[in-house]
């Protein structure tokens, strides 16, 4: 299975996935030198290290998706509370 470039959840909540090199990682404060991956709620992006093996990168992706999904639930619940139970 390949890691997608983006995922869109209900409510038009788009999650971008970027695979970055070590030098590119320096541009992202959340992806410090010790982190293999990071979820940024600010730009709704998962950052993954290119240097990781395919299997490890997939595990990193799945872990960060858990964080993204939790933030989406909070976002979606806030929307549905304001728009009602049948919000689309």
Question: What does this protein look like?
Answer:
Helix content is 39%, strand content 24%. With 88 residues, it is an alpha+beta fold. The chain has one domain (6-81). It has a four-stranded mixed sheet. A hairpin with a 4-residue loop joins strand 3 (37-40) and strand 4. The longest helix has 30 residues, at 54-83. It is globular, with a radius of gyration of 14 Å. Residues 84-88 have low confidence and may be disordered.
Quick take:
The protein is an alpha+beta fold. The chain is about 40% helix and about 25% strand.
Rg, Cα atoms, Å: 14 Å
Q: Kindly state the number of beta strands.
A: 4
Q: What form results from the Cα inertia axes?
A: globular
Query: What percent of residues adopt helix (DSSP H or I)?
Result: 25-40%
What would you call the structural class? alpha+beta
Low-confidence stretches: 84-88
Please give the domain count.
1
Strand content: 15-25%
Overall average residue pLDDT: 85
Question: What is the count of DSSP helices, taking H or I runs of 4+ residues?
Answer: 2
**Strand arrangement in the largest pleated sheet:** 1-2-4-3
Distance between the ends: 30 Å
Topology pattern, helix = H, strand = E: EEHEEH
Specify the biggest β-sheet: 4 strands, mixed
